[in-house]
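User: I'm writing a tutorial on reading structure tokens. Could you give me a worked example: one chain, its sequence, then its tokens, then a sentence or two explaining what the tokens reveal?
Assistant: Sure. Here is the example chain.
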Amino acid sequence: MRKFRFTMESALRLREHQEHQALEQLAGAIGDHAAAQQRLEDTVKQVADTIVRTGHDVHQKVALTAFLCRMDEISLQQQFELAQAQDAVAAATDQARHAQAARKGIEKVKERQLERWQIEASREEDRVLNEAALTRKGTQR
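And here are its predicted structure tokens:
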């Protein structure tokens, strides 16, 4: 009996590879998002700590004002980076879903081909057994 051979095996491997790459990109995007979020949280903590440490001296308050203005700029930039990271995660998630759907589609085709092959192989086996039985029966007479 011949062996099952899936005609689209190379396409399936390609889809699996594309899905793997999409998942790696998603993992990277999630990591970038977490890092951006952590930087923003660190900035907020730094501002809060500085405000708590600032005394009542006029020079310290002037320095605090300058510091807060600079931290506001940094915070806005980090919020923008965080939004970009969220967009990247969403895009990578979409790409991973599409890659998974493409792979599953080809796997479904493979399953159907395997089922047809199994039915055909079973029929072929039955035909060979029937021939052998008829040949044996014919030689016994």
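What the tokens reveal: The helical segments are 9-53, 58-140. The CA atoms of residues 65 and 71 lie 10 Å apart.
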